[in-house]
Structure formats: structure tokens, C-alpha cells
């Protein structure tokens, strides 16, 4: 396959960016999108030019490091697929592909296609954990969890923190990410003691980081490589409202869902 790439190049956070055009020749349809960029970069390095910076780590769809806008779509044209799992056979030979970094005020560009997603780390640090002393590992059967709660918690825990939801949202909202983290802990018994405080603190941090508000466009769940449902946002809003209504951060209320 031969492709034309239009790639966002930006030397650093303060430098002005621009689109640059590159020819990608002899691309195998079996290459992943990142492997295709590797080949382009090898050619750039051979020619003494600066390679295109992009984020990646596991290259198997589980770490959340990769992610670019491909022809204006977060993670590209295949639903439920992270950029590293996207294969070039999904593009036509001769195609022109526009590649840009996530666009969000809360994700400043570091270089080229790399953005700073440390705002997500600070949302987690605000409450995305359990501090209750849970003791040693118990026999699993001693803490019963309803099958529906276990399934929903597992689905929410699939979030890899890639940030595609933010990039896809017209408001630049981080609600799907934050709601996924709140849900996977708040649906399980161990997450109950801090459930409402967690929602209150994580939502407050999300706002402080400059993410936009959720107005239920639903673009986030369409872009999400792990198909996280916007139902999690409803759960986050309910928990946040309970925390606000009671005014007691540490209040412990039973039940899940
Ligand atoms: S909710 Fe989906 S799109 Fe958003 S960070 Fe998690 S995995 Fe990525
Ligand atoms: S590189 Fe880890 S999810 Fe893509």
C-alpha cells in the first residue's frame, strides 16, 4: 500500500504547530497503525530528519498509552479498537490520512502527537482508590457480590485511561473516564465506605483540571476502545448528588447500583 500522511508536527508545548505531508511507501496491510508510523520514522531518521513523536507502550490494547485522531476520529475508523490494534488493511491503497494529537485544553501537546494526560492521574489521586483496611486476602465466597454488579464493575474496570473520550467530546469532558473509575470501585463491597466521598472528590478534580461538562452527546462511548457505557456517567452523577445532598464526605450508605 502507498499512503499520503498529513501529520501534526509541533516541536514542544509552546511552539506553533503545523501539518506536514509524508509519503508512506510499501506499507503492508498487516502492519498496525503504529508499525506504519515506525516505518515512516525509520525513513525520516535515515534522511536526517526528526522522527514523528507518538505515545505507545504495550501495543496490545491494554495500557492506554497510544491514541491519535485519525481522519478526525479518535483511534480511527474501527469501533472498539485502540490505535495500536488498528491495522492498515482498514485503509484503501492510495488513501490520504490525517493524523493529529488529542485536542483538549486539559491535554496540552508535549510534542507532535504526544499529549500530557497527567490530569487523569490527578483525578485518580483525588479518590480513585480504596483506603479501607481490608485485611488479608479472604476466601472469595465470604464476600458475595451480585453477578450483575460484578459484571458491570468488570466492564467499567476495562477503561485503559487512553483519553479518547475526552478527544471525541465536543465539550472536552472527562466524564466517561472518571465515571468508569468511580463505577468499578463503587459497585463492589470494598468500595462502599468511600463511595460518595470518592465521587465528590474525583468530580471536583475533573472540574479543576479544565475538562468541559458532560451534556450527553454520547461521542465518548462511540470513541472508547473498551466500549465503556455512558450509563456509568449516570451512576457517577447519582453518587455525586448523594454526596452533595448529605454534605457528609464520610457518610456511609449501603447498596450498590
Ligand atoms: S473511558 Fe474509554 S475512551 Fe475514555 S479513557 Fe477509558 S478507555 Fe479511553
Ligand atoms: S500501546 Fe497500549 S493500548 Fe495502545
Q: How would you characterize the overall build of this protein?
A:
By secondary structure, the chain is an alpha+beta fold. The protein has 2 domains: 3-111, Beta-grasp domain (Ubiquitin-like (UB roll), Roll); 117-246, Fumarate Reductase Iron-sulfur Protein, Chain B, domain 2. The chain is 33% helix and 11% strand. It contains 8 helices and 7 strands. It has helices at 33-46, 118-125, 147-157, 164-168, 175-186, 195-208, 219-223, 231-246, and strands spanning 3-9, 18-24, 69-70, 73-74, 96-100, 109-111, 114-115. The strands form 2 sheets. A 5-stranded mixed β-sheet has the order 2-1-5-3-4. Strands 6-7 form a two-stranded antiparallel ribbon. Helix 2 (118-125) packs antiparallel against helix 6 (195-208), helix 3 packs antiparallel against helix 5 and helix 5 runs antiparallel to helix 6 (195-208). The longest helix has 16 residues, at 231-246. It is elongated, with a radius of gyration of 20 Å. The protein binds iron/sulfur cluster (SF4) and FE2/S2 (inorganic) cluster.
Concise structural overview:
The chain is α+β, with helices and mostly antiparallel strands. The protein has two domains: 3-111, Roll (Ubiquitin-like (UB roll)), CATH 3.10.20; 117-246, Alpha-helical ferredoxin (Fumarate Reductase Iron-sulfur Protein, Chain B, domain 2, Orthogonal Bundle).
Amino acid at each position: 500500500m502507498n499512503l499520503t500522511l498529513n501529520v501534526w508536527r509541533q516541536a514542544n508545548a509552546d511552539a506553533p504547530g503545523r501539518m506536514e505531508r509524508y509519503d508512506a511507501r510499501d506499507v503492508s496491510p498487516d502492519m498496525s497503525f503504529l508499525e506504519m508510523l515506525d516505518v515512516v520514522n525509520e525513513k525520516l531518521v535515515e534522511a536526517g530528519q526528526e522522527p514523528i513523536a507518538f505515545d505507545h507502550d504495550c501495543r496490545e490494547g491494554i495500557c492506554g498509552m497510544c491514541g491519535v485522531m485519525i481522519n478526525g476520529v479518535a483511534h480511527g475508523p474501527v469501533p472498539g479498537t485502540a490505535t495500536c490494534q488498528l491495522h492498515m488493511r482498514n485503509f484503501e491503497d492510495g488513501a490520504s490520512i490525517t493524523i493529529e494529537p488529542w485536542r483538549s485544553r486539559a491535554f496540552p501537546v508535549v510534542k507532535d502527537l504526544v499529549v500530557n494526560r497527567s490530569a487523569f492521574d490527578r483525578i485518580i489521586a483525588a479518590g480513585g482508590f480504596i483506603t479501607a483496611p481490608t485485611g488479608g486476602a479472604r476466601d472469595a465466597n465470604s464476600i458475595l457480590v451480585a453477578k450483575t454488579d460484578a459484571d458491570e464493575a468488570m466492564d467499567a474496570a476495562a477503561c485503559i485511561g487512553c483519553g479518547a473520550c475526552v478527544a471525541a467530546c465536543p465539550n472536552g469532558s472527562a466524564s466517561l473516564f472518571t465515571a468508569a473509575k468511580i463505577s468499578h470501585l463503587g459497585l463492589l463491597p470494598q468500595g462502599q465506605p468511600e463511595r460518595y466521598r470518592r465521587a465528590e472528590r474525583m468530580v471536583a478534580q475533573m472540574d479543576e483540571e479544565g475538562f468541559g461538562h458532560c451534556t450527553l452527546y454520547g461521542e465518548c462511548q462511540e470513541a472508547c476502545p473498551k466500549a465503556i457505557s455512558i450509563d456509568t456517567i449516570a451512576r457517577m452523577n447519582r453518587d455525586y448528588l448523594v454526596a452533595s445532598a448529605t454534605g457528609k464526605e464520610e457518610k456511609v450508605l449501603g447498596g450498590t447500583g
